Amino acid sequence: EQILYRFQGCQLLGTTRETGREAHADQSVIILHAKVAQKSYGNEKRFFCPPPCVYISGHGWRVMQDHLKGEETKFYLTVSVFLQQMFACAKSLFISDQDKRKHFRLLLRLFLGNRQEVGSFQSRMIKVISKPSQKRQSMKNADLCISSCSRVALFNRLRSQTVSTRYLSVDRGAFVASARQWTAFTITMGKLEDQRADQGDFVLSEGFICYGCVVQLVCTESGVALPPMVIRKVNKQHAILDVDEPVSQLHKCAFQFRDSPQSYLCLSNDTIIQYQAPSSIKDPSRVVLNDGSCWTIIGVETVEFTFNQGLACIQTPVSPFPVITGLEVSWIRQVLFTTPFSFLVRVQSVRKVGFLYQTNLITVCLRS
């Protein structure tokens, strides 16, 4: 009854059935951020890298734009510019040594062009670290390890200069090195026999990513993937071939193409290329790298909120944005509610729902 009442409340806008379809268009807010952040000391500022990003999507924003256009032109223009960008990032965030917190969350406050607040949205928890750990990680520090099927970001920074930072990204289906936007990749680990497998074969394996393992990077948004690669530890611009310890947050690493062992993933300006790395003359277990083939890896989180704001005038902002923390259903596989709209709820399985409209767990269809 509570769910039915809430959906009915969305219809109390004085709209017709025809405009109701537009009024119930979904709006999405996606927050991307790193799992860890380095603390700054003294006068230095270690800006969060990669910077937290916000994407908005969904037809509901366009409906809201048209609604504001009808109310006042200047509001429409403001929202129009924002919708064309669909993206924003915070490059100047840092945490000082005066802040004693070991964990924190980011808080996003979202406003429309007419200064009406949509609501506030929280990120996932971020761990504060002093510097990347150079010690071999153990199960006690599992939160600092990179696990298979988790999400990561890669960036390249020349001589620790912030202005030279380039992020591995995907643009229109192609891998690029971007100074502005970064992409979250799902990193998957292959089984040991994959190192000798035929091209195209890749069998997933679970556990923590270790140096010397075959991995694959898949764009979480587009599904575009790089070929299978062997992840190598980097020390003083050399790839070390005989290290098998777990990969940790903010480690420097290199990616050796499995089917072309002399080639390494590399950037050249804004282009992603294959670098032909020569072996070290002094040590056969090391390979000499250039600046563009040394990457820093970090775990990232993606938080998505999908909702329908409707066209009603909100007197008070939704703050913080409500989320579903759990759902229990017994002996129900399909429920049909009939109101001015039909609500078709299909429950796939009895599992916890992390956020609204998480379609792999519960599907809600609105019909006029």
TrEMBL record:
The molecular function terms in GO held by this entry are: DNA-binding transcription activator activity, RNA polymerase II-specific; RNA polymerase II cis-regulatory region sequence-specific DNA binding
Q: Give the originating organism.
A: Lates calcarifer (Barramundi)
Which parts of the sequence belong to the Beta-trefoil DNA-binding domain? 144-295
Keyword Transcription regulation among record annotations: yes
All copies of domain RBP-J/Cbf11/Cbf12 DNA binding, residue ranges: 28-143
The alphabetical list of record keywords is: DNA-binding, Nucleus, Transcription, Transcription regulation
Q: Know the name of this protein?
A: Recombination signal binding protein for immunoglobulin kappa J region like
GO CC annotations? nucleus
The entry assigns this protein to a family as follows: Belongs to the Su(H) family.
PANTHER family per record: RECOMBINING BINDING PROTEIN SUPPRESSOR OF HAIRLESS
> SUPFAM superfamilies annotated for this entry?
DNA-binding protein LAG-1 (CSL), p53-like transcription factors
Compartments reported by the entry: Nucleus
